[in-house]
Predict the structure.
Amino acid sequence: MGSKKLLLLLLASFYMFETAAQTKLIEKVVKKGNELVIPYEKYQLANGLTVIVHEDHSDPAVFVQVTYHVGSAREQEGRSGFAHFFEHMMFQGSEHVGDDEHFKLLTALGAGVVDGQTNRDQTRYLQLVPSNQLETVLWLESDRMGYLLDSVTQAKFEIQRATVKNERQQNFENRPYGLMNEKVCEGLYPEGHPYSWPIIGYIDDLNRVDVSDLKKFFLRWYTPNNATLSIAGDVKPADVIKMVEKYFNPIGRGPAVKPQVIPPVKFTQDRYISYEDNNI
């Protein structure tokens, strides 16, 4: 072997060793005797991604969830509904996954559960698949975490905007008592409080945003250092970490994310609200 090839091989080996060495085991919980505890191992990649692995060989299946620590409370007033809106966009394809292919690929793998969920403080993407399909799921999740923006088009944006507006109308505005929680939150929290607006957003806010706003939201919040990858099931932690490093290590760390401090609400007097529901 020539000296040049040997040098390249040594450099490649050194790089792989350094990359792997940067993944740190930060917590390990072990079940002792009959105590009621779920054992797990928690790791952190060099780019800040937190990985939690729970080993359970009772069924040949694995549950995979990516939690981004951003929900409707991180939105700006007048830009409500963005976190939920983006949940829809994450299923529309990424750089290496065709339009509308994400669901189809997971279904072909035998996925029993595929879902996205948004609340005030986080957005979750989850799937339950046969354990021998874990690597494909990790590839899919890494592709939309690291390589989504180039696939976001105005046409996709408009389709999902219309979908979210229809969801609001169907599940809230046109359903008996559908706006009750929205009205309660508006009355419970002062104007401008991050919990005061609905997770699905207001129609006027959804009409106001454009695709550039969506891309800024992604770049700010959908980063490895603002995400937790949870994997539970018929797996071995060492094998899982190797696969996670393979697909997620190339994704760069995003802007620093500080914990959000939600101001507590104080009432100095009783408060009463009412609204007329035309669907009853």
